[in-house]
């Protein structure tokens, strides 16, 4: 086809060499000339002044440049004259059918169309560097969809009243949804948080009942449990909810995003249907943990975004991090999941702020005991099906998409903004423009996906990159192309032809670091004996065998491998002059670990960042030099130590010294004097024993002296009393009249006393009071 493509000037889509010479050749040349004469001087200058020496190099300059296949169409002219705009090449005398000028056009296959909501389902686009093409995408919502609604409920203790409300929502919700859906199914799952500290209490008495503070019997905490797959049996749903017990945790945020990702990607477990509208209802009253929060529990492995349900239990809860918002959004869109956040309390605004980051989600506030839950679900569903938005997932480097929505009311909006208030009788149009900035490294055919959010249909866009010339179409043409430009220039098909021959002899041999390792470390593809690494959302993958990346190694002060190394197979490979597991330590720091004897950490540890880490827990000190309980060289070699001081040794010991200790190392001989100068542990023991004994004896003497003083003071007080009494008697006697007086004592009356009724004071007075 030598004609045009949709929405661009016809001159941009003519591949002149694809038109076979015929009677109308001159007419075509004149037609092309008339179309391209209007091109600006800037295009003329860019093509002609580029000094391009090959066809591919010329075409890469822009969509208006052409290449004349005839080398000598200008006698004596330079090769760069063969690259120019088409009108100039024709005026210079290049035959029309000898001009390389790849076309740009859009092909929409009319047969085998299976989509009913998103059309066209497939589009094929021929592009060249700098060119653009466009087409229209139509989206027509259905009147009634099958609906799969999965309840994902926070079952922490504070949600107790809301869970009770779920027992009665099934039948009522099913009746209300009948107006909007011809096929309605319900499912159920529960979540709490990661089952490690500090998220839950790991005390033995609370680990199986986290909500003892509520005086409730709770089930053990869990990350996520899939309870009931999607079913039409409403009674079965209500029974599953009725059996659900609450659980609990310590901190305020919950593990909701962990559970949401598993509910989205575990398609077969949940029972999501391809043709249904998929709704994930998340009920909670608290925020959710985000990525990196789990580092508090020592969990550092990034979430891989895959399904990890075993016996309906999420088994990676304690070993993988929470997903990031970007990762969660990607998985929800990939699996056509619309999310409804049903939130109670003040945390509603937290989820409302997340909506721009999670396309296809809605947040609603539930009342006390979830009284308005059913109405919330119905209203959210109506809003979701009335919004039409698209997202582009491009796998073609250097190719860009610009999408504009044409809404039923005539408004034009960006594709991600989309249209609202769309009814089942409306049709939304999207004007899609595809531009190729340059040819990708791999070249060839790739594709992109345009995905309406929440729809189960997509449009696949096949991109054919016209980066080469027709001289490269056959073996002879490839040889001619090789003559025109060396193999290391921009003639990719020539290189591809050669590399295919090499791969046939030894496929993928140059893409493995070792024979037992996967091709390109499992993170790339092998092309022409070289690894082309995959693009990953976590970061950059690079290296000869795609063995390096910038995300899987530890960070130090915010920099991967402290900025002093490269990440390879999850471990930091430090640059010269640096060491440590994070490349955070200068190699010169090892000098700070050498003691006065020239030993590194006294031979009892390793040097880490200029500090000794003792390998023997009994060792202490800056250089691990102190180890009181370690066996010393003196004790181990005592029989030989005494040989260094042979005075007063028997002949038998001297003979042993000559035979067994002749090979003692010189360094030890130099340090052997320490064995004799070292303190006697027996002497130290006796000194400590004697000091302890003397201190105890001193205490006993002091106590004895205190007791004696106390007794003496008591005796003295008693004698003082007697002395004072005698003085009183003398004083009284001095005042008595000297006249003798005789008294007659009558026999006193007998007094009967019941001593048992007297109190202690009376009894004492009775028996110990002075006579008279």
UniProtKB/TrEMBL annotation:
> Mind listing the GO molecular function terms for this protein?
extracellular matrix protein binding; integrin binding; metal ion binding
* Source domain of life: Eukaryota
Report the Gene3D superfamilies cross-referenced here.
Answer: Laminin (2.10.25.10), ligand-binding face of the semaphorins, domain 2 (3.30.1680.10), ntegrin, alpha v. Chain A, domain 3 (2.60.40.1510), von Willebrand factor, type A domain (3.40.50.410)
Record's GO cellular component, any one?
A: focal adhesion
Write down the InterPro entries for this protein, in alphabetical order.
EGF, EGF_integrin_2, Integrin_beta_N, Integrin_bsu, Integrin_bsu_VWA, Integrin_dom_sf, Integrin_I-EGF_CS, PSI
- A Pfam family cross-referenced in the UniProt record is Integrin_beta
Disulfide bridge positions per record:
47-469, 55-65, 58-94, 68-83, 211-218, 266-307, 407-419, 467-471, 491-520, 526-531, 528-561, 533-546, 567-572, 574-583, 607-612, 609-657, 614-624, 627-630, 634-643
GO BP field: cartilage development; cell adhesion mediated by integrin; cell migration; cell-cell adhesion; ganglioside metabolic process; hard palate development; integrin-mediated signaling pathway; Langerhans cell differentiation
Membrane topology, as annotated:
Single-pass type I membrane protein
The entry's keywords: Calcium, Cell adhesion, Cell membrane, Disulfide bond, EGF-like domain, Glycoprotein, Integrin, Magnesium, Membrane, Metal-binding, Repeat, Signal, Transmembrane, Transmembrane helix
Give the subcellular location.
Cell membrane
Where would you say this protein principally sits, based on its record? membrane
Bilayer-crossing residues are: 681-702
| Domain EGF-like stretches | 572-583
Concerning PROSITE patterns, the annotation shows:
EGF_1, I_EGF_1, I_EGF_2
Can you state the subunit structure given in the record? Answer: Heterodimer of an alpha and a beta subunit. Beta-8 (ITGB8) associates with alpha-V (ITGAV) to form ITGAV:ITGB8. ITGAV:ITGB8 interacts with TGFB1.
Provide the family line: Belongs to the integrin beta chain family.
Write out the function statement from the record: Integrin alpha-V:beta-8 (ITGAV:ITGB8) is a receptor for fibronectin. It recognizes the sequence R-G-D in its ligands. Integrin alpha-V:beta-6 (ITGAV:ITGB6) mediates R-G-D-dependent release of transforming growth factor beta-1 (TGF-beta-1) from regulatory Latency-associated peptide (LAP), thereby playing a key role in TGF-beta-1 activation on the surface of activated regulatory T-cells (Tregs). Required during vasculogenesis.
Q: Which PANTHER family match?
A: INTEGRIN BETA SUBUNIT, INTEGRIN BETA-8
Any idea what this protein is called? Answer: Integrin beta
